[in-house]
Amino acid sequence: MSTADSSEDAVLHWLRRRLAQDPRDSPELRIGHDAALVPRGGPWAVTVDSQIEGVHFLPETPPEVVARRLLAVNLSDLAATGAEPAYAFLALTTPPGFAHRRFFAALLAACESWGVRLAGGDLASHPTTFVATLTLVGRKPPRGRWLRRSGALPGDVLWVGGTLGESAAGYRLLALGARLHRGRVQGLPDLPRSLRGVARKALLRHLAPTPQLALGRWLGRRRRCAAMDLSDGLSRDLRRLARESRVGAEIQLDALPYSQAFAALCRFLEVDPLALALGGGEDYVLLFTLPSGESPPPRFACQAIGEIRAGAAIYTVGNGDRAPLPELGWDHLKPSR
Amino acid sequence: MSTADSSEDAVLHWLRRRLAQDPRDSPELRIGHDAALVPRGGPWAVTVDSQIEGVHFLPETPPEVVARRLLAVNLSDLAATGAEPAYAFLALTTPPGFAHRRFFAALLAACESWGVRLAGGDLASHPTTFVATLTLVGRKPPRGRWLRRSGALPGDVLWVGGTLGESAAGYRLLALGARLHRGRVQGLPDLPRSLRGVARKALLRHLAPTPQLALGRWLGRRRRCAAMDLSDGLSRDLRRLARESRVGAEIQLDALPYSQAFAALCRFLEVDPLALALGGGEDYVLLFTLPSGESPPPRFACQAIGEIRAGAAIYTVGNGDRAPLPELGWDHLKPSR
Hints:
homodimer, alpha+beta, five-stranded mixed β-sheet, 9 helices, 24% strand
């Protein structure tokens, strides 16, 4: 890393090189991956993720919403390893007057419903900033394997575990003043009635993502697959999966899972639906590969979006064109949506 | 917890009651304690602690210093369980222009020297705030027991693992403009030459505390002891140990470990040395009890400061007086030094 280059991937690359100098290092011990597997190879997967006011959520977001989202994004990282969630450890930094009771009641209820025990933590105060960091520990299911980003082979089919871009659209709606109140979209009088349903879905995808733990465990029982969690946008995250597997890929633009209603919402938001689907980020669905001919059960509502190719290049194919995958996505060290 | 009462102990009390409603709960799963022991009773101890700019360290503190301190305060929590450190997971939130390379180089070197592997993490950016949260995982040493806050009995001797109040004095020196540069105190021209040595020691105690891991492991091989980490001041932390052990205590003020030189530094700082020793906080030494007649080896430089008593009251004895222990110490939700 040159001092000039402080993008997230550059910092991580430099850090991995430093860690790799240590002969005890193993690929199981990883920064910037979905979760670390300890001791080497398991049986524990550990992940850590922060939710920061003004970065991951808007000021005035109810503490219950932050609590549930904090757990969900961490569970999504565990889902990407195929783990069963077990323990959570919270570091909570809050400004004066913070409603601890509301935050914890929601967090404990969400932990209960996902089978997680809140096992420890640290409380701190800051004059202005609300930061919640959760460390989550999961265990390998009895008959499961750990999922990894590596292992994709040319000819494998590339899948996503759900629709793309909706969370990013939800964030834009919030930034324009939209709020969900008792399940209804409020605060955006301009929003056409016909878009209320898709707007509500987008807000829910952003505020209350559903971690794909069952899909992760199903993938962990496959003979071979590569998998990761889509948090920084398909464009950026697919590059990471391809790099770890030393392969390229081809994405069918027509196959990207988003609806006509979503495209209409994007027109209202004056954003390109394709840009949100490829680079919006915070989708919190799994990106994975399976050998050709194998497919996940319909209950997981997955979508095949392309194919793994030999080489290192990643292309999109659509409208008769073949073009390099655009550089989109979210760099955590250069946040700009 | 009433909404009016949002002190740290009140939040923790409310939270423990909520957790205790869960029949699967065990005393090994703890918030606000030094570390959680998972699965129930071990073999892993997990602790999490944050360092926040403007709260735990002053703005402009070099990233190397923050990195080493972050590791040290977490290691001190592990020391209080008797664990051997194993893995670290970092959540790092930094403002634009942060020197990641300097931070990580120092953190990795410190991890190396304490036998810790940096195994995973998360990088994020915030417009203004620097928050670093470390989750540390330790394992139970082969022949050791876990240390707990409970288990002290009337007649046991109360010990501390080092001097008290120096870290708080160091913080005050920093707030007045003092800096350590190549091991020398600078930036405070008023400071008498005779106080330079003790000021340097106080700054080091604050900036670079030394976790007492070896003492913790030694205590883990005793037949019986209660132990915890002194982070919020003797007054507050002793109350916690006494509550968990359901005992009272008597502290000999004359036995509190601070030097004449420290008292002179406190006169310069216009603070009562006793107030710093009892309530300054961030001492990061162990507070523990041993049965009468047993004492730690001299290499640990521990000091007996009093005795465990039946009942719940905690007294100080000195100058012919016996008085209730003053309510001092640091509440993490109401920070005021």
